[in-house]
Design goal:
Layout: H1 6-23, E1 31-37, E2 40-45, E3 51-52, H2 74-97, E4 100-101, H3 114-117, E5 129-132, E6 141-143, E7 150-153, E8 160-162, H4 164-167, H5 174-186, H6 188-199
Antiparallel strand pairs: 1-2, 3-6, 4-5, 5-8, 6-7
Helix pairs in contact: 5-6
This protein binds zinc ion.
Length: 200
């Protein structure tokens, strides 16, 4: 299924990355170019060192250490997940909580995460929204496979100001992340609770 709003999501990504770089110490890639080319809209960013947290341990880079396995290394995974959790809780969330706005979205464009797209009825006067990444999971947390520490966050196309409850929708484990979405999609009560937050 094609994603909604191709142009806006690309420009939102570029604007959000620049905003995060200007407003926080959260490591995100610099925007090199944004525009429209022969293949559609594009944003080019610098590369962030490392690999997605979701791929950590597939090939262990420190296999000589005790407790590590050459492939499918659970020791690497456990350490990287613990590091990412600390990073999100201590470095990312406190800084995002300080970025507030009276309107949802970002720069006039609101690109909600997929779980609210279908039921979105925003014209809200809620006094305070906080800046959310919108898709903060192990596929978007870049991690150094040697040190197992977070190197940066990527993929800000869903970023913007949303109710603070949205900031809590994150998980550093693949399973936890997809369970979170499954819970939302399969639980009318949970989905309703979150989309109501947009309307209150
Ligand atoms: Zn390992």
């Amino acid at each position: 299924m094609a994603k909604k709003w191709p142009r806006q999501r690309i420009f939102n990504e570029a604007a959000a990355l620049q905003f995060i770089r200007d407003s926080t110490t959260i490591p995100v890639p610099a925007v090199i170019a944004v525009g429209e080319g022969p293949d559609g809209f594009f944003v080019t960013t610098e590369l962030i060192d490392g690999i997605p947290l979701a791929d950590i341990g597939e090939k262990c880079e420190v296999a000589t250490l005790p407790g590590h396995e050459k492939t499918k290394c659970s020791a690497c995974q456990a350490t990287a997940i613990a590091n990412a959790k600390t990073f999100v809780e201590e470095t990312v969330l406190p800084q995002l909580r300080r970025l507030t706005s009276c309107t949802t979205g970002f720069n006039g464009f609101v690109n909600p995460p997929p779980w609210v797209t279908e039921v979105d009825r925003r014209e809200s006067a809620v006094p305070e929204f906080v800046f959310c990444h919108g898709d903060l999971g192990p596929h978007n947390i870049m991690t150094d496979p040697f040190t197992l520490k977070v190197t940066g966050l990527v993929d800000f196309e869903n970023a913007g100001y949303f109710p603070s409850e949205f900031l809590e929708q994150w998980a550093v484990e693949v399973k936890g992340y997809y369970n979170m979405y499954k819970t939302m999609y399969e639980s009318p009560a949970e989905l309703s609770r979150l989309t109501m937050a947009l309307e209150s």
